[in-house]
Amino acid sequence: MKAKPVAAIDEFVRELVEDMRRVARELDGAGIAAPQLGESVRIFLTCAREEEPERVFINPVLEAVGAVEPYEEGCLSLPDIRGSILRPGVARIRALGLDGNEFELESDGFPARVWQHEFDHLEGVLIIDRMRPIDKLANRRALRDLERAGG
I need a labelling partner for 86 at 20 to 30 A (CA). Which of 6, 11, 15, 129 fits? Predict the structure, then answer.
């Protein structure tokens, strides 16, 4: 289900972001979205990687453009499941930071892919929803095990 917009950047939001940072670091993720921690609000963060700093995105608006490109993705919510996901190569994003200031970014690299992946969580979409049938087939045992475990 779609996450709800954040009405105010308050103590709840700050504590949630700290929890998201902790979990993303523990699991060595590229990013994490609030719904992955059971909070249906429109927040995600991307972890520091190479030249990119950690960023918090509150109420993001995303535009993905360009030719779709395959890239193998995994997800913290679906351990041991990976697949080649097709996404546009360029993304533009506008969001609020944790300081309440609006910012805009554009990327044609790995950050664009992470933004799209995390934004999907805010829209109620998982990588299994974007997988090609061949990747679903390759992951069928892991998916079945998750379903049996109640995941």
Answer: 6
